[in-house]
Each structure stands twice: as C-alpha cells, then as structure tokens.
Amino acid sequence: MTNGILLNGSADIDFMIHGVFPYQFFGQTVWITTTHICLLIVLLLILAFAIAANRAMKHASEVPGFFQNIVELVVEKLDGMVKMVMGKNATKFANYIGTIFIFILISNFSGLLGLRPPTADYGVTLPLGLATFTLIHYNKLKHKKLKGALAELCDPWPIWAPINIIGYIAVPVSLSLRLFANVLSGVVMMALVYGLLRVIAIGWPAVLHVYFDLFSGAIQTYVFCMLTMTYLSDAIGEEG
Questions:
Q1: How far is 22 from 29, CA to CA, in rounded Å?
Q2: What does the alpha-carbon distance between residue 155 and residue 153 come to, in Å, rounded to a whole number?
C-alpha cells in the first residue's frame, strides 16, 4: 500500500484509502489509514478552535474583538438554525446539531488543506447516521411511549408494519450514503484532474475546489443537519 495522505499533483495521485502503517492487534494486522490520519487532523483543528473559543468567551469584553465576533456569530447562527426547525425543542438538541454541523463542515472543507476528507469514507458517515438513528428512536420512545411507537409502526394498517420497518432502517442508510457519495464524488473528480492533467493542473483547479469543497461541502452539511432535525421533530411529535 502507498502511504499518500494529501491530495496533490503527484504522479501516484488517486482517490483510494491507503494504509499508512500497520500494527498487531490480538494477532491480527490492523492498518492506520489515510482516513484515520485526516480524521485526527480535523479533530485536532476543532479541539484547538474549541479551546481558543472557550478562553475567548471567558475573557469576553463588551466590545468584542475579531475572534470573539467569530465565535458569537457561529453560536448565534447554529442556534438560530436549530430554533427555526425545532422550535421550543431547540435547546435540547442545539449542542448535538451544532457538534455534528461543525464536524461535518470542517471534514468537508479539509480538502482545501490537501487532505482526503474523512466524510469521503463510509466508515465515518455511517456512525453519524447511526448516532442520529439512535437519538431519533430514543426520543420517539421517550415522548410517544412504546404504545405510541407501535401504533405509528402499524399505521395505517398492521400489514404496513414491515414497510414502515424498512422505512426506519432506511433513515441511517440514506443519511450516511448521501453525505458519503457527494463528498466522495468531489474527491474522485479532483483526483482525476490532478492525476490526468498533472502539469497543466496549476491554479485553475482552485475554482473546482471552491465548488466541491466549499459549496458542495456546505450544502451537504446543511442537508444532513436539516434532515436530522426534521426526523427528531417528527419523533418527538406534538407532545414534545
């Protein structure tokens, strides 16, 4: 396996996940891949921002500086987005939605740093979908109780239960596949540009990065979070 981590203009550019180094785990060879490395870099960037934001807000002033303005703007916009969709339930889920929004957004934008976006790996997007799936059905049981959940499962008739079950199972699959496929398509396109054009791929691919990494990355982040909030609101129902 090659050890490339960055998407650059080298001759061996491709869009595959590669092993970086192996280690032994209970007698089995396990690989640390490019996804693990890029995911670690993204998490460190988010952690650094969180620590800096925490320190900035602890020493917040009435006349905010540049960084304090950024932190307040991020929190305000995220809270506003959640409140717009979830209404009075926004405060319960603002932290979760804000966390996955920032993680997915930075992961999608990481292509601008020459990294392979972690969200181009289904092993990253599937756990996000499963986490949302678990949260949805936990809140459904919490607010609608088992009786209400079973009644909804058999709506409009009991014979529809198998179809509704398939619909429930499709939620984490559709959420994770939509994000994964859209991000991976951008990775593939940029890999083809750098790999096939090479010497003439200088400067102008930045326009493609703006679309695939910034525009498409932001859209997919927004879609994932909006669907998550919609499913959660539906699970809570009117009693929530």
A1: 6
A2: 6
Angle between the N-to-C axes of helices 66-86 and 216-236, in degrees from 0 to 180, rounded to the nearest 10: 40
- Closest to 80 (Cα-Cα) out of 65, 91, 96: 91
Beta-bridge partners for 119: none
Q: Is the separation of the CB atoms in 78 and 101 below 8 Å?
A: yes
Alpha-carbon distance 100 to 42, whole Å? 13
Cβ neighbours of residue 38 under 8 Å, at least 6 residues apart? 5, 110, 115, 116, 117, 118
H helix runs in the chain, sequence order:
34-58, 66-86, 90-109, 122-153, 161-192, 205-209, 216-236
Q: Tokens 């932290």 — which residue? A: 95
Averaged pLDDT, groups of 10, the chain, 240 residues long: 45 68 84 91 95 88 85 92 91 93 94 88 94 92 83 77 87 94 88 73 73 88 95 78
